[in-house]
């Protein structure tokens, strides 16, 4: 008699097999919850504010650009308008008081050269005022007391103490301004009216108003 068990072995049922497979399979790694990380990223991101509003730095750059463009256009517009207005030159008055005849010693007085561009010249019998403008090209000559003459620094024209040209390219003597005495006996000078001695022309230095007798 044989000891072999002849009882047939039955196949495991289908649910049992699936359970065994599930038990033997390696469990899937647990997915970390990303919500805290996403929350931190959202907190670090600057708030956009209202819908369509740019971040503050962008708004400042845009404002600066538009301000620069506006200033440029305004400056050009003002320069454009400038052409419609005449250019006005403010010059010193042409009529002024220089004091009494007794205030001036014999010779050339330069007190009013810077203020009114004139020299006051007193001679033994008269006072006259020379307009300090070279008759060559209009430069202002200098009085050289040591040389007893006027000398133009531009082109070397020379004049006597009476303003008569004697050297250089000056074609004629310097002009003289109108002078007269007011009611108080003071000398009034008017540089808008000049007396000249044209080259080859008539001498007007002895005309009334060209000098004051003393």
Give structural notes:
24% of the residues lie in helices and 22% in strands. The protein is elongated. It contains four helices and eleven strands; from the N terminus they run αααββαβββββββββ. The protein has a domain at 95-205: Rieske [2Fe-2S] iron-sulphur domain (Rieske Iron-sulfur Protein), CATH 2.102.10. The protein has helices at residues 14-24, 35-44, 56-82, 113-116, and strands spanning 95-99, 107-109, 118-122, 126-131, 142-144, 149-151, 158-159, 165-167, 176-181, 187-195, 212-213. A hairpin with a 5-residue loop joins strand 7 (158-159) and strand 8 (165-167). It is an alpha+beta fold and 214 residues long. Strands 1, 2, 3, 4, 9, 10 and 11 form a seven-stranded antiparallel sheet that branches. A four-stranded antiparallel sheet has the order 5-6-7-8, with no helix packed on it.
């Amino acid at each position: 008699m044989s000891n072999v068990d002849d009882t047939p072995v039955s196949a495991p049922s289908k649910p049992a097999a699936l359970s065994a497979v599930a038990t033997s399979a390696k469990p899937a790694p647990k997915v970390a919850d990303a919500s805290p990380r996403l929350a931190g990223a959202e907190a670090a991101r600057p708030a956009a504010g209202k819908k369509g509003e740019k971040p503050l730095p962008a708004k400042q750059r845009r404002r600066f650009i538009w301000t620069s463009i506006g200033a440029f256009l305004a400056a050009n517009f003002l320069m454009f308008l400038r052409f419609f207005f005449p250019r006005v030159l403010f010059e010193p008055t042409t009529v002024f008081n220089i004091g009494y005849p007794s205030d001036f010693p014999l010779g050339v007085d330069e007190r009013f050269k810077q203020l009114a561009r004139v020299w006051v010249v007193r001679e033994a019998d008269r006072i006259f005022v020379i307009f300090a403008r070279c008759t060559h090209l209009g430069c202002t000559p200098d009085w050289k007391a040591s040389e007893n003459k006027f000398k133009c620094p531009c082109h070397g024209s020379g004049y006597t103490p009476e303003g008569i040209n004697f050297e250089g390219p000056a074609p004629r003597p310097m002009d003289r301004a109108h002078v007269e005495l007011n009611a108080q006996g003071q000398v009034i000078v008017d540089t808008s009216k000049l007396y000249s001695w044209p080259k080859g022309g008539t001498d007007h230095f002895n005309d009334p108003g060209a000098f004051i007798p003393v």
